[in-house]
Amino acid sequence: MATPRVRPTWQPGDVREAGGGLFALALATFVAITTELVPVGLLPLISDDLDVSEGVAGLLVTAYAFMVAVLAVPLTTATRKLPRKTLLLTALGVYVLSNVIVAVAPTFALVAVARTLGGASHAVFFSVSIGYASRLVRAHLAGRALGLVTLGASAGFVLGVPLTTALGTAVGWRAAFLVLAVACTLAGVLTALVLPSVPGGGAPPDDAARGARRTALAKVTTANALAYLGHYTVYTYVSVLLLATGLATAALGPALLLIGALGLIGAGFAAARLDVRPRQTTVITLVVVAGGILALGLAFPGTAGTLAAAAVWSIGFGAVAAVFQAAAIRTRGASPDVVGALVNSTANIGIGGGAALGALVLDGAGFAAVPYTGAVIVVAALLVVLVARQGFPATQD
């Protein structure tokens, strides 16, 4: 009788060996982040078409993010025995469905329901993908692997929004969501073809250092939440702020695209340095983000100064996802998937909280106060990093 053919288990290798899988994850991450943030640049168009205020339209970001914040850990725990690749492909399929429903929804209520569905998918996708990327390579290369994958996240943060804004401005916001649904489909096909299957699990050892590792993880995720909170207090309403400086509506998409492209500099900086100087890289990243947001507040409402400050801010934020994901994974405070869920959850607490806080400041104190609020919160994240030496070591172990 013939011996059954056993499919080989993926063995972690170097970055080059894992290149195809990392690229697939980067592309999937790009469309996932773009799906989350596409309303940011389209808020004026969505609010006008659906007859709601810009603050209410901003809740499309808030509701999505809070779904992720609430569901990331429980959904990751509930699906821990399912194949990782299957979960990623399912999440991408739900992104497609969510974007299609938004594109054809006749009312704001149905748009909100579709966005909530996308948020549930996001809760699973990023929790699994962070751990997935770290499993594709050997442990000492995790920072570079995550840095490369989060180039996709950075591209979503800095290019996805301006691209969909330019498209939405040109042909309508609903068409932008349909194009994004097609992009999610293509990312799913590529993922199915080239991403190797990896095992789940990987719980940290139950030893005397377990408590210290969990404490380090808690500090990393706290700083992560604060960094995203400060950023999204401002970034959720960046299109509104730029228009308030006198920037023409037709120029908004191209301006965001040009500024956003600079964020890839920060992402590349993180990928090159995270396996060598993780603490220094994190500190530099947050200093640039806080400085850029503060400069934006000082320059507002001048058009040229506001655009220049936003460019500096974007460079810094391009590195944020990678530095916190790598720091959290290296604490070994939980399994890679649970670490991914915690990073995902706290980032989205920041995203949703930032959208809500920005709306309150915008409606209360006005445009000029929004950047200062965001800058103060990012400085708080920096202070956590400076005191949490175990979570943010000078060199990797």
TrEMBL record:
Domain Major facilitator superfamily (MFS) profile: 21-392
Cross-referenced Gene3D superfamilies: MFS general substrate transporter like domains (1.20.1250.20)
Chain segments annotated as transmembrane: 21-43, 55-75, 87-106, 112-133, 145-163, 175-195, 216-235, 241-271, 283-301, 307-329, 341-362, 368-388
Keyword annotations: Cell membrane, Membrane, Transmembrane, Transmembrane helix
Chloroplast found in the keyword field: no
InterPro entries cross-referenced by the UniProt entry: MFS (IPR011701), MFS_dom (IPR020846), MFS_Efflux_Transporters (IPR050189), MFS_trans_sf (IPR036259)
Membrane-topology annotation of the record: Multi-pass membrane protein
Name of the molecule in the record: MFS transporter
